[in-house]
Amino acid sequence: MAIVVGTALDVCEQPESLKLTAQMVKASKMGAGGGSQGGAGEKAYVNISYADKGVLSAVREITHMQNRRLYFAHNKVLIISSDLAKQDIEEGLDPFTRDYEARMNIHILISRGKASEILEEVPDLEKVPALHLVGMINHQKLNSETVVVTLRDFNIATLSGSTAPVAPIVELYTSEEGKKKAKLDGTAVFKQGKMIGELDTLQTRGLLWVTDKAQSGALTVDTQ
């Protein structure tokens, strides 16, 4: 089996289709030693993409390209491009909600730009981009400026008659070394299965305060 740790969904040039990108770890490259890509420069993961009319059909079609079956029980993060989220996010989430391999505690992220490019960032302290994203998400309680949303949280909010679903936004930026890095910045707001707007960092902190989910953070106060 091919262990999937990250998944991305993008709009596709083909009508009524989407592109699925699965990030799979190379077990032989995940040993001790630290570092981002190892001394030899070989990546500890591989990204495979396929476009089809649905998520499950794309997963099945990838078997024509790989000798191992994609295994999603260890999937940590699901990234959906903002372009796809503005059309219909439910179509992308539904297969992960119903499939027996998928876990309800995977993290949901909305990307500015292509979601597949987020899985191609070059992290400094991790070997696999998806694991780097999860590490960042797990430490957002230290600043209370980013919402942390799992698939379960998003589905509950979607079914609620009084709560608007939200999800953190991730984007790529270029570091001083010229490397592509991922950054969490803002919150995507949804209504009736579609992304309708964004909250900036300050507004997101206010949202966390109001919903009693702010845990920690630092405020700089001008005393003059």
Question: Topology of this protein?
Answer:
Layout: E1 2-11, E2 18-25, E3 45-52, H1 55-61, E4 70-71, E5 77-81, H2 82-88, H3 90-98, E6 107-111, H4 115-118, H5 129-138, H6 151-159, E7 166-174, E8 180-191, E9 194-199, H7 201-210
Parallel strand pairs: 1-4, 1-5, 5-6, 6-7
Antiparallel strand pairs: 1-2, 2-3, 7-8, 8-9
Cα radius of gyration in angstroms: 18 Å
Number of helices: 7
Q: What's the assembly state of these chains?
A: single chain
State the shape: globular
Q: How many beta-strand runs?
A: 9
Molecular structure report:
The protein is α/β, with parallel strands linked by helices and 224 residues long. 25% of the residues lie in helices and 29% in strands. It has 7 helices and 9 strands, in the order E-E-E-H-E-E-H-H-E-H-H-H-E-E-E-H. Strands 1, 2, 3, 4, 5, 6, 7, 8 and 9 form a 9-stranded mixed β-sheet that branches. Strand 1 and strand 2 (18-25) form a beta hairpin. The longest helix has 10 residues, at 129-138. The model is unreliable at 33-39 (pLDDT under 50).
